[in-house]
Amino acid sequence: FYLPLFSLSFCLIRLFSFLTQGAVTDQLSRRQVRVYQLYSRTSGKHVQIHGKRVTATAEDGNLYARLFVETDTFGSRVRIRGAESGRYLCMNRKGKLVGKPNGRSKDCIFTEIVLENNYTAFQNAKYEGWYVAFTRKGRPMKASRTRENQREVHFIKRLHTGLPPFPNTDQSKPFEFIRFPSTRRAKRNRKIT
């Protein structure tokens, strides 16, 4: 069995990239950015990043509740950035949620997990088993006390109802229907009344 040296090294590189796909930040592929709000199941409000503070007390359509969710790799790893504040949702080593201006570190990357009950949970990439969670009052919970099956870690992704997410969308016209004049029906197609 003969393989040229080039194809063997290419196969090894592809295998290595497949094995480390979820663990390493992907700098080559194009990032996707989605815009939505995160509705907390326990507080009944939306997550907001307001400076360094992160809470789940925002009403529907609040400017600070609009979040840009950027994909980090081919998998389900994401970075969450507040559209108004420009800060990233991060988790420090004590398990506290904070807003940071730079989201490149691993403590600002979360794995998006869609649960069986159709809620979404966000597990920190650096601290395995630690989830984004909020109390009934909308305060962040200590991540070391969270589990995937708790109500406090469950979120629903919702579209933002406020201003349009991109600057040029306010100039678009509403969809117009084209009206055609009614046509006479042939004898065989007439309705019998």
UniProtKB/TrEMBL annotation:
One GO term of the biological process aspect: negative regulation of endodermal cell fate specification
GO cellular component: extracellular region
Keyword presence, Signal: yes
Main location: secreted
One Pfam family this sequence matches: FGF
Localization, UniProt: Secreted
4Fe-4S keyword on record: no
GO molecular function, one term: growth factor activity
Keywords linked to the UniProt accession: Growth factor, Secreted, Signal
InterPro entries: Fibroblast_GF_fam, IL1/FGF
Signal peptide as annotated in the record: 1-22
Assigned protein family: Belongs to the heparin-binding growth factors family.
The protein's name: Fibroblast growth factor
Organism: Maylandia zebra
